[in-house]
């Protein structure tokens, strides 16, 4: 392989920010690597130990009940139409199977229903927001 071809590949590596390049051409095999020269060593971070803190009684109560999570990625809708009343509010009593919200995924509206009877204690998602798979939507207390 000619020197000008090697220089061309080295220039290409520099231009593209590559640290290594392997070329097989016309029966020749070439491997180029940039060494550590001028490369800053990675920084080391020390993470301090953390101690688990007891939660106040008010926070412990907040976690009571069951959490309804999103079964899919999509857009959360609290009501069936833009100007319609939301399906539920904080404090609403629901029965197993009642519609809590809609999630639009791939142009399909999917009803999310209550898994058991109870009262809506918290609504985590806001109308029109995108929710991820497994994201908490509601907390229902018994």
Automatic annotation (TrEMBL):
GO cellular component term, pick one: acetyl-CoA carboxylase complex
Domain Lipoyl-binding: 65-141
Biochemical pathway: Lipid metabolism; fatty acid biosynthesis
InterPro entries: AcCoA_biotinCC, Biotin_BS, Biotin_Carboxyl_Carrier/Decarb, Biotin_lipoyl, Single_hybrid_motif
Protein keywords: Biotin, Fatty acid biosynthesis, Fatty acid metabolism, Lipid biosynthesis, Lipid metabolism
UniProt-recorded Gene Ontology molecular function terms: acetyl-CoA carboxylase activity
GO BP term, pick one: fatty acid biosynthetic process
Function: This protein is a component of the acetyl coenzyme A carboxylase complex; first, biotin carboxylase catalyzes the carboxylation of the carrier protein and then the transcarboxylase transfers the carboxyl group to form malonyl-CoA.
Protein name per UniProt: Biotin carboxyl carrier protein of acetyl-CoA carboxylase
Organism placement in taxonomy: Bacteria, Pseudomonadati, Spirochaetota, Spirochaetia, Spirochaetales
